[in-house]
Amino acid sequence: MVNFVGRIGLVLALCLLVASQAFAYRIDAVAVEMGTGVTADTVVLTNSARALGNSLSIYGVWLTPRLSNSGNQKIYIGASSALTTSNGYELTVTGGSVRIPVDNLNKVWVIGESANSKVGFIADVK
To answer: Has residue 2 been placed in a domain?
Structure first.
């Protein structure tokens, strides 16, 4: 019985060796660029779309509605001046934050549900 069990173990080990070779893969090194700093601000919104900021090369930006928004007012995020409260990505204070992997701050557009809504952002500057 021991001999039979030993042979089964050897066959199993050989099968695992063959399978691991068949599914082997290689991971190459990946270059990661680091930013030169960060920029952060709070923007007061109106009921008209506006760019989040001036032209600034970034690796991405985090957006968070500010807690000072009364009544859990919503903000909407989009990619152009055509942004409205009907076609934007809706975000509320209780909805948390969102990261947008964009290369320039002026490519992110925001609008408030009502005047004086606020959105905070922090971006990794190139």
So the answer is: no
